[in-house]
Specification:
By secondary structure, the protein is of the alpha/beta class. It is built from six helices and eight strands. Strands 1, 2, 3, 4, 5, 6, 7 and 8 form an eight-stranded mixed sheet that branches. The relative contact order is 0.15. It binds S-adenosylmethionine.
Length: about 200
């Protein structure tokens, strides 16, 4: 996939993702440790490093990382499967996932959420872009509603924003997408079922 004509991949976008750019402006923080998760062509990681962040770009694809390394020596590009990650606990202040989460198999989503929570520092931000259920394209990555996002992430993150937007790239019509801004919760909130389980254990039921 990343051997030739990378610039023609549907998700290829040379500039910084418009929604992330806007969010960074709102936050007003231009320094810190940024992970571009599933970096692919590396464009987002490179743009973030130009702003002044200390950037790591990871991808499961060796080909992608090999190619991205040739484009920038400012970004720390490395091969990493987020589902078996070698990244350290609390290693990043910010994570941007633009298109990795939405390609993962549904059975891996819970592990993904726990892992990104773990590698984010206290009060860290997760910026997520994924396809929206409003996108009519049939051959596509998985699609999500705001409710899907809440039910997957709310246990570990404060969801600050879920915005209907588009996924910028090389397609003639940019697919409908969600842009989600989340802040790491201090400790994950036990949902009702878990609480009940512990109460039952305590009561010996
Ligand atoms: C749709 S592409 C988006 C690439 C890049 N974020 C961008 O916006 O240009 C998704 C990327 O996620 C990577 N990916 C898929 N599964 C992954 C995993 N388990 N761990 C890390 N990267 C993964 C793929 O190799 C691919 O490069």
């Amino acid at each position: 996939m990343y051997h030739n004509e990378v610039e023609k991949l549907p998700w290829y976008y040379d500039a910084l993702d418009n929604d992330l750019e806007e969010e960074i402006r709102i936050l007003g923080v231009m320094t810190g440790r940024f992970l571009d998760l599933g970096t692919g062509p590396g464009t987002q990681a490179i743009q973030l490093s130009k702003i002044g962040y200390s950037v790591t770009g990871t991808d499961i694809s060796e080909g992608a990382i090999k190619r991205a390394r040739r484009l920038s020596n400012k970004v720390n590009f490395k091969v990493d499967n987020i589902l078996e990650t070698q990244l350290n606990e609390e290693e990043f202040d910010f994570i941007f996932d633009r298109g990795c989460f939405h390609v993962l198999a549904p059975e891996n989503r819970r592990d993904y959420v726990k892992t990104v929570h773990k590698v984010l520092a206290k009060n860290g931000f997760l910026f997520l872009k994924c396809f929206s259920i409003k996108e009519p394209m049939t051959e596509s990555p998985y699609k999500f509603s705001a409710k899907d996002i809440s039910s997957l992430f709310a246990r570990y993150f404060n969801i600050l924003k879920i915005k209907e937007t588009v996924y910028q790239g090389t397609l003639e019509t940019w697919p409908k997408a969600l842009f989600v801004v989340m802040k790491k919760s201090p400790s994950h909130i036990q949902p009702y079922a878990d609480q009940l389980h512990f109460i039952n254990l305590y009561l010996g039921i």
